[in-house]
Amino acid sequence: LAYSAPVDDSFGMKHSAIFVMKADGTGARQVSHPFALEPDTCEGQCDNGHASLDHSPAWTPDGKLAYIRMVYSGDESPRVGERGTSVRIVDPAGGGDTRRYYLEPRANGLIFSIVWPTSSIHPFAILGDRPDKTFSIRNLATNTDIPSAPGVPSI
Predict the structure, then answer these.
(1) pTM score, whole prediction
(2) Going along 1-155, which residue ranges are E strands?
């Protein structure tokens, strides 16, 4: 089983990370490690803070775990290049994660959810908060939106 749960962050805050456990509820362990909150360091005179959280795990056909990382960052943050959402992949048996797909939020919106069909080598995502204020279903490999009923994204 895979799930997201809160983990302690800096400054008394929490953010979410991805965990796995056995079907009987034992052996829970964290497999993603989002970076901690860093607030602005210049008392309102700059915008260099950042935070991240991981959510929405989905199994890939080859037994790895895909999840969404949301990164909030100020324009002057060292993490500004990561701002927005990305789909990351991790081997639940151990090892580091890799960023597989990234969406720049101002142009493409944010990834809200993913599904990885067993018949596909790429995930599909529900995107929202786009410049035109709509939701869509997108094949992340081809960056192509899939037609659906207006206002009803369904996978």
Answers:
(1) 0.87
(2) 2-8, 14-20, 29-30, 50-59, 65-73, 84-90, 98-103, 110-115, 124-128, 136-139, 144-146
